[in-house]
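Quick start: read one record
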Amino acid sequence: MTQIPNIHSHRFCLSAAQCDAQMGLSPAMLTQQIIEVATEHADLLGVGFKRLEQGGTLWVLSRIAFEMNRYPGVLEPYIMSTWIEDFNRHFSQRNFDIITPEGEVLGYARTIWVAIDINTRKPADLSGISSIASTVVDRPCPIAPPGKIRPATEPEIINEYTFQVSDIDLNRHVNSARYVELVLNQMDLDTFDAYRLGRFEIIYHHESYYNDCACVASGMVKDALVTSISVDGTVHCLARSIMKPKN
């Protein structure tokens, strides 16, 4: 019988088509790959999409924070590993590291996952899969967890965006990575060229759906660009971006 590892790793090689304008892995693509690797590990542990769907629930990403020393470049191989740090009936906390095959640490990520009822869209009880508590790993993740984010009181950049077909995922709500793209699009190209995203946090409060018109508002709060994405006056997510000058 094959033993399922409590730490799961996936090897990537960044193609040219996956690069952003800085010729590296984009933060939105990084978010997608974090979701991909988490999904792979959940499937291996027997608590993936099919298992939860049987109980009328589904996993959703609630929070994410990542810090990158640098982003993988075009055609560069890298390895993303994930493990569960904590689990209870309300949420699962899953961490990641991103390293090169030579052992260089590119960055770390922390995520929090919750389950929602497919029909009511309200939080669901995870007691039915409590067996995965035995897979919790005591492995360091040296970055701070996602913290509380307060929106900018006087946003300096405000844009509107209506969610389209390509923004919607299999759960019939807006893809988590699409919000990351909307946050980054608040910057102009000169700023994007001069800086890199060092630390990023996003908290998802509410689901957004096809044809929702979102207000994307950003402003500086201390050393970070804080962005709120709202629909009909209700904040659906908040993000904090800390930019670092490019070396």
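The first strand starts at residue 7 and ends at 13.
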